[in-house]
Amino acid sequence: MNTTAVPTTSPVAFTAPAAEQELISSLPSDFRWGVATSAYQIEGAVDVDGRTPSIWDTFCRVPGAIDNGDHGDVACEHYTRMPADVALIKELGLDTYRFSVSWSRVQPHGTGPVNPAGIGFYDRLVDELLAQGIDPWVTLYHWDLPQELEDAGGWPARDTAYKFADYSMLVFDALSDRVNTWTTLNEPWCSAMLGYAYGVHAPGRKEYPAAVAAVHHLLLGHGLATERMREAATRPIDIGITLNAATAYPASDAEPDLEAARRADGMGARIYLDPLVHGRYPADVIADLALEGVEIPVRDGDLATISAPIDVLGINYYFSQKFTGYDEQGRTVGDDGLPISRTLPLNRPRTAMDWEIVPEGFTDLLVRISKDYPGLPMVITENGSAYDDVPDETGYVVDEGRTSYFASHLAAVASAINQGADIRGYLAWSLLDNFEWAYGYDKRFGIVRVDYETQTRIPKQSALYLRDVAIQHRSR
After folding, report:
1. Each residue's pLDDT tens digit in the chain (476 positions)?
2. Residue 99: is it exposed, middle or buried by C-beta count within 10 angstroms (0-12/13-18/19+)?
3. Catalytic residue among 77, 150, 382, 436
4. How far apart are CA 140 and CA 122, in angstroms?
5. CA dihedral of residues 463, 466, 468, 474 (deg, nearest 10)
6. Yes or no: is domain 18-474 CATH 3.20.20.140?
7. What distance in Å separates the CA atoms of residue 379 and residue 34, rounded to the nearest whole number?
8. What are phi and psi of 457, to 5 degrees?
9. Secondary structure string (H, E, C) spanning 21-45
10. Other beta carbons less than 10 A from residue 329's beta carbon
11. How far apart are CA 195 and CA 187, in angstroms?
């Protein structure tokens, strides 16, 4: 169905620098190689087979919220083109496919029984993947909360955590006989902060105390679902969560810069990792929030639930940042009485997202997590880059920037492993060009080009590079 056959070789060859090649070749022979997507970004079919609106369906109708007024109504038509997309993953030599489940497709309105037509799609997807020898990796939540649950308060409301656990069990009951690896949440930082503090993602609210409450209730939902899935499992499974994390570098050794980096790390990483692994929120983060008059709404027993043991930590990485505690006038405290925190450029090349390319930040992050949270295996569940792709007359894209990004970041992963980090696999973001949230369809992350007018899929140079690396490693 409008899928161009995967070429044997790229018309333009790519060779990674020798040092990167050497590191990549050191990756374990049993390393997991895959690709990731999310439901709202690719599925389309938003009003068929009983699916009801999510917060992203609603947010996309807010004037000015999404570039060009784009929306996910059609997206990549994956809902109808799924078998061909799975065959494409197989052709690319990848062994793992991480996908998310649409809550409002499986459980319309966010409450009540499972929707047979909705869960039926994911049932077929899992069977199709297994038939092609591809391991299905389920993500239960990738930002698309049913709109009715947002109307009832959304993630800032405690009840949403319990609703999430109920929904999770509907999916688990249907697929756990065949799915070995389960992720509860994708990037709770984005759900909480971009959605409820900064208002740039659905549902578009700008309420900082609500965002902090959302952080806690997302983690509580993770813990509740983890406990219930673990109890219901009839065979060994792996359960985890995926966090987007980065290295926060201080601009200097000056105390205000060190403090700014500490605060960024606290709200970006440790506010999630500490309760998940250690069963507590970091004391410094609690103190930082108190300066803003905000408390984390913890109840008795919550942290024991949140820290239910997990088997794998998913890490999504795109860039790192440098922080300073001084404003342009050299002040360390703002007019609001709060410490200054702002970013400074690292003076690195940037992707089309205006994100700096910092592969050593990836290594530093992974090594740091392995030391501060030992005994927790990691898988890179997203890593990739957007570029302004220029297709040739056949639609093929020579995306040397993206290909080089993959090579440098695979080398960064290998370097972390060589320094003792336990990393089991790498899933590229993303299989397809798709709906890139507030950026609409302007930003392309796919290793496969999608012509949105014809829905034709055309593997890019980066896809062929990842295929060759994966196949070479399995053949060792």
Report:
1. 566 667 777 788 899 999 999 999 999 989 999 999 999 999 999 999 999 999 999 999 999 999 999 999 999 999 999 999 999 999 999 999 999 999 999 999 999 999 999 999 999 999 999 999 999 999 999 999 999 999 999 999 999 999 999 999 999 999 999 999 999 999 999 999 999 999 999 999 999 999 999 999 999 999 999 999 999 999 999 999 999 999 999 999 999 999 999 999 999 999 999 999 999 999 999 999 999 999 999 999 999 999 999 999 999 999 999 999 999 999 999 999 999 999 999 999 999 999 999 999 999 999 999 999 999 999 999 999 999 999 999 999 999 999 999 999 999 999 999 999 999 999 999 999 999 999 999 999 999 999 999 999 999 999 999 999 999 998 77
2. buried
3. 382
4. 11
5. -140
6. no
7. 10
8. -100, 130
9. HHHHHCCCCCCEEEEECCHHHHCCC
10. 6
11. 12
Those residues whose C-beta lies under 8 Å from the C-beta of residue 293, and which sit 6 or more positions away, are 209
Question: What pLDDT was estimated at residue 3?
Answer: 60
State both tokens at 192: 């909480």
Measured between alpha carbons, how far is 460 from 6 in angstroms, rounded to an integer?
Answer: 9
Quickly list DSSP for 192-216: IIIIIIS-SSTT----HHHHHHHHH
Report whether 282 contacts 271 (CB < 8 A): yes
Q: How many residues does the chain have?
A: 476
Catalytic member of 20, 187, 259, 436? 187
Report domain extents, the chain.
18-474
Largest CA distance in the chain: 62
Name residue 184's amino acid.
T
How far apart are alpha carbons 270 and 369 in whole angstroms?
10
Question: Looking up tokens 């992974």, which residue turns up?
Answer: 366
Pairing of strands 448-451, 456-459: antiparallel
Q: Is 382 a catalytic residue?
A: yes
Distance between CA 476 and CA 463 in Å, rounded?
A: 20
Element (H, E) at 331: none
Three-class DSSP category at 130? helix
Active site residue 43: no
Contact 103, 146 (CB under 8 A): yes
Which residues are CB-neighbours of 204 under 8 A, at least 6 positions away? 59, 62, 65, 195
CA distances 249 to 282, 322, 405, Å, are 19, 5, 21
The residues near 257 (Cβ < 8 Å, ≥ 6 apart) are 250, 251, 323, 324, 325, 326
